[in-house]
Amino acid sequence: MLSFITPNEQELLQRIAALAEREGMPLRVVGGFVRDRLLQAANRLPVPPKPEMDFVTTGDALKLAELVATIFPHARHYQYGHFGTARVDWKEWMFEFATARTESYQSDSRNPDVVASTFEEDAARRDFTVNALAWGVNGAENGVLFDPFGGVRDLEQGILRTPLDPGKTFSDDPLRMMRAARFVAKLNFSIDPVTENGITENAARIEIVHVERIADELLQTLAAPFPHLGIDVLFRTGVLTYILPEIVELHGVDQRGKHSHKDVYTHTLQVLENASTLSNDIAVRLSALFHDIAKPQTKKFLPEIGWTFYGHEVLGVRSINRVFRRLRLSNLLAKRVGKITRLHMRPVRLAQEGVTDSAIRRLRVEAGEELEALLQLCRADITSANPKRVEKYLKNYQTMLQRLDLVEKRDHLSSFQSPVRGEEIAELCGIPFGPRIGMIKTAIEEAILDGVIPNEYEPAKVWLLENRERLLSEPEQRIRKKSLEQLDEKQVERLLQAVKESHEQSESNE
Ligand code: ATP
Ligand code: MG
Fold it and tell me: From the alpha carbon of 110, which atom of ligand 1 is closest?
């Protein structure tokens, strides 16, 4: 059989192939499975391969799928009658079955009329040469690699090329243009110039594609390892004009005298690239793409200052809502990306002197669950070409992180309390409520932070009784809780431990 696929995959293939053979159906596995396993064998697949196999047979694919569903326990089985295809889902696997076919298209639809045909004709309807590769899995063809259009060569060179005339390929099914962008984003391939030209010429045809399919391809492109490359394909070829004109608008530089601002489109791509190395969270990547979306509307030249974009982060939220509605993306995603965009200028300001803890706290509360995503976007947003500036921004960023961390710890500090409570101190010491109770409480807390006693009720009580006379006779000065900066590392560690314990305790009491 085939080399460089896992024993588990071998077994799956063999079982399905044997079943087809029994039915007298020649079977080939095609498309992504073949492409990605060959790339993987050459150590050139940037993502783990999908658990997905696409099969093509010259026999009855629907019947084969039905049979396959019976040999895998609890498999789910779907038929797409009018496309002549079927799918079987089993565990994490997705097996797709199609009868070899030729397609003919009407100009107003990307859904073709299909006629059963040969493997050769079927290969010619595929979008790219690297996707037209097929492996025979049974009969005399078992183990034979079929490469009718030079797909192996294109795979080696990392090139996307259509098997037939690109103009017709993309006009027939314009979704293929977005698939091209997605494969570039996934595989870091380039597009053959003639093929790319075919996309450019047919860019406007994207309008016959349903918006759900467009949105789905866009999300897949953004989720891939090189999203910026995929978006740039759409930009270069003009497809983006039809699906995200707001991003195309970011392109260009305005000049007033000596003052020019940076090209927001180029900056956006760079942020997207940075974001993709920092996070797989789709909201972070979408925010990278959209965070400056309102810069064109807010752009103003002020002679004393230069180019400004006041309020772009706020106005951006409106644009994002509009775009997300148009693409029928989820409300939840719109909310997340909107929030991250709205707050994206705030963290950097926190590095400035004079910014209060409460401002930091407010940001933390406002960002809520998106704090991590927000920080990732801010990190990705540092793109200057000037290394000195990058260094400065990075330093600000680090300072901001430290301040956030410090405030968080300080908030923990205030939730830390002596395990012996006020009423009991009053009782054990025989004194009424008053400032001295607070002082004694603080003394117990200090003893815990200094490591004299553990953060437990009994030892604290014993310590209080042993030190009672001293604590009662000391002058009634106000012992103030130390601020976090005054604590050494060990003390901070004990504090955090103590807070953790008290949280765990209150949880287990609930
Ligand atoms: P992946 O599953 O990794 O995204 P894939 O190449 O397997 O990539 P699928 O959408 O699973 O893509 O399709 C399987 C195969 O079917 C493709 O490799 C290609 O040969 C063919 N194919 C899918 N969609 C189209 C299309 N719109 N036009 C032409 N061929 C297509
Ligand atoms: Mg696939």
Answer: 27
C-alpha span between 25 and 56 (Å, rounded): 10
The closest residue, in CA terms, to atom 6 on ligand 1 is 32
**Ligand in closest contact with the CA of 220:** 1
Atom of ligand 1 nearest to the CA of 31: 18
* pLDDT tens per residue across span 42-93: 999 999 999 999 999 999 999 999 999 999 999 999 999 778 899 999 999 9
Distance CA 14, CA 8 (A): 10
Question: What is the residue with the minimal CA distance to atom 21 of ligand 1?
Answer: 126
Which residues fall within 8 angstroms of residue 56, CB to CB, at 6 or more apart?
Answer: 27, 28, 30, 97, 98, 99, 100, 119, 122, 134
**Which residues on adjacent β-strands are paired with residue 89?**
76, 94
Q: What is the pLDDT of residues 87-125, one digit of tens each?
A: 999 999 999 999 999 988 999 989 888 888 999 999 999
Which residue's alpha carbon is at the smallest distance from atom 12 of ligand 1?
32
Report phi then psi at 208, rounded to 5: -85, -5
Cβ burial of 365 (10 Å; 0-12, 13-18, 19+) is exposed
Is the distance from the beta carbon of residue 126 to the nearest atom of ligand 1 less than 6 Å? yes
CA nearest 34: which of 5, 68, 64, 1?
A: 5
Ligand 1 lined by 316 (C-beta under 6 Å): no
Residue 227 near ligand 1, beta carbon < 6 Å: no
- Identify the CA nearest to 343 among candidates 307, 298, 320, 375: 375
Residue 90 Cα distances to 75, 81, 374, angstroms: 5, 20, 37
Least confident of 53-67, 100-114, 415-429, 467-481: 467-481
Chain length of the chain: 510
Q: How far is the CA of 31 from the centre of ligand 1 (A)?
A: 6
Mean pLDDT for the chain?
92
**Distance from C-alpha of 422 to C-alpha of 440, rounded to nearest angstrom:** 9
Confidence band, pLDDT 50/70/90 cuts, at residue 234? very high
CB of 50 closer than 6 angstroms to any ligand 1 atom: yes
The predicted model gives 438-444 an average pLDDT of 89
- Position 484 scores a pLDDT of 62
Dist. CA 32 → ligand 1 center (Å): 7
